[in-house]
Amino acid sequence: MNTLKNTITNHLHPIRPKKRSRTIIESIVNDGSNMEKIHDTKPKDYVYQYSCAMLNLSEDVAPIIRYWAEKNIDKENLYIDNDSGIEGFEYIPHVTIKYGLHDIKPDKLIELVDGCGPIQLTFGKVSKFDTNPNFDVIKIEIESEKLNKLNSLISDNMDNTDKFDEYKPHATIAYVEKGTCDDLIENEFFDKLKDEVSQIYFTSRDGEESYIGL
Prior knowledge:
Elements: H1 2-11, H2 23-29, E1 35-37, E2 51-56, H3 62-72, E3 80-81, E4 86-87, E5 94-101, H4 107-113, E6 119-129, E7 136-143, H5 145-157, E8 170-176, E9 194-197, E10 199-203, E11 209-213
Antiparallel strand pairs: 1-11, 2-5, 2-10, 3-4, 6-7, 6-9, 7-8, 10-11
């Protein structure tokens, strides 16, 4: 894995530091002791609609996803909307655990995940979300019994707004123009690839960011 990671990383375009914009998520949805606070990336008076809990993929797997995306998705097919923070490629591959949380602080989440332990992820085929009228989302399907249970635990015990009846864990690869990249659907490049994540990345609706150890 390390050799593959090094080879892939050497072929990637440099990834510039960037703000983790949840305006992307909102455009789709509209659609403690083990917590380390990280640097704020929004003004103190900035307010998101909801808070979000997610898993940033490991340094072994994330470069593989970015490499595949750059090799297989033509830049002319990318959907870019700077006003919404959508830059085409997903530069920080992640899996959303729960979007739509009302809590500003992660205290309740910390209590719920105490003793949870790392979460194992098994990747599946490439697929697409095509319900947004402005763009399609190229993604990798994810299987994880523990992740599904964690989503249910959070959904049942934290105030939230969620219009989706079913949780479908996935890792976004890129946002593309409507009707493009259909040739990538069912691609098996990531099938059976595995990852393990030991931190939850919590972004508050007031702009604060935290890592919560599992």
